[in-house]
Specification:
This protein is mostly helical. Helices cover 76% and strands 0% of the residues. It is elongated.
Length: 136
């Protein structure tokens, strides 16, 4: 299980979302640290809860920017976000119930983050840039 090393190539060009993505990576890395250190399970559960709530916040925030900017692929993004949230809620519940597979959790989150941001979010960033719009 490895931490994600933030790279500039993860930036999509929308400052508000880029900052949220950095925070998302920090939370994933925080979970990696507490899990690898064998930190008490209550702390692990709380970090995952924070991560789940942050994902909920981020998805709504990103979708709101898509609404404001009239992004044509918003529905695709919303569907991907809902699938992420559904899977994360399931994994979180299983983790709390004793299936404490931190490796699986981190692998899923890392793959989702890298694939989604590099594909779907980059399309949104390009759309914003091409329109000369801002996140304000």
């Amino acid at each position: 299980m490895e931490q994600i090393v933030w790279k500039d190539e993860y930036r999509m060009g929308v400052e508000e979302i880029d900052k949220q993505h950095m925070d998302f990576v920090k939370l994933i890395n925080r979970f990696v640290i507490v899990f690898q250190n064998g930190t008490h399970t209550q702390v692990q559960d709380r970090i995952l809860l924070e991560l789940l709530k942050y994902i909920e916040y981020h998805c709504v925030s990103e979708e709101n920017l898509m609404l404001i900017s009239r992004y044509p692929d918003r529905v695709t993004q919303e569907e991907e976000h809902q699938a992420l949230l559904k899977t994360m809620r399931y994994k979180y519940d299983r983790f709390k119930d004793g299936n404490r597979n931190g490796n699986d959790m981190v692998k899923y989150l890392t793959n989702w983050f890298l694939n989604h941001t590099q594909k779907e979010d980059m399309k949104f960033g390009k759309y914003i840039k091409d329109r000369g719009a801002t996140s304000e």
